[in-house]
Each structure stands twice: as C-alpha cells, then as structure tokens.
Amino acid sequence: MNKDIQHYNDVQSVLDREICQLLSAGINLQLSEKESKIWHAHPVWFIDGNPIVGYSKLKAGIRLMFWSGADFEETALKAGTGKFKDASVTYTDIEQVNLDDLARWIEKSKVIQWDYKNVVKRKGVLIRLA
After folding, report:
1. Where are the alpha helices (DSSP H) in the chain?
2. Which domains does the chain have, with CATH numbers?
3. 129 near 113, Cβ under 8 Å?
4. Model's pTM, two decimal places?
5. Which of 3, 19, 38, 44 is the most exposed place for a label (fewest CB within 10 A)?
6. In this predicted model, what pLDDT tens digit does every residue of 32-86 receive, in sequence order?
7. Is 123 exposed, middle or buried (0-12, 13-18, 19+ CB in 10 A)?
8. Contact, 57 vs 5, CB < 8 A?
C-alpha cells in the first residue's frame, strides 16, 4: 500500500480508520497496478493519470467518491452537484461497507470514464473517455 495513504488512514479516529483501511484494501485489490497517492489532501487512485476513485473524511463520515460514478446507474451512489459526473456514498460504520458493491463500482470505473485529467485544459468541459 502507498505509505502516504497508509498514514492518512492511520491518523483517523478508530472507527474512521477501520472504514478507510477496508476501503483502501478493497480498492487496491481491483486497482493494484494503478497509481495511487494523496491528491487534494485525500487518497485517490488513477488510471492513466485520470482520477477514478478516492475517499475523504467529512463531518458526516467517510465519503467514497467515484469521479465518473453518476453514470454507473447505481442507486447507492448519490450524484454530486451536477456540474461534473461524480457520485459518492458516505459511511459512518464499517458494517455499511459492502465489498461486493465496491468491487462492482470499481469495475464500472474502469469502463466508464470522463476525462478529468484534462478538464482544466478544456476550461471545465468533460469528454467521455470510455
């Protein structure tokens, strides 16, 4: 595991740490060959430089976000503001994390991608990659 992501997980409260460790382990199972790092202060995994999935600590809990998740057609994932194609779910307890859902969403993230890598260059315009 990426040492910076491990450190991010380690500094969370006991409950949040358990959720973060479970999420990072589940994500790493599916994206072990892909780049991962702390990006904008939270763990993110990338495919060819494009952000795919990450999680962050919010007041409400640990938010798992998929950058292209709004197109996954998954009711458990709540779409973001509408400007982009992100969708997320927030966990407050480790029992809420369903690893089968996580694996399915990660598989979808490999085939449903919007080009966030170049969104600044395109002045906020997203183009579908896959």
Report:
1. 3-10, 14-31, 99-111
2. 3-111 (3.90.1150.200)
3. yes
4. 0.91
5. 3
6. 889 999 999 999 999 999 999 999 999 999 999 999 999 999 999 999 877 789 9
7. exposed
8. no
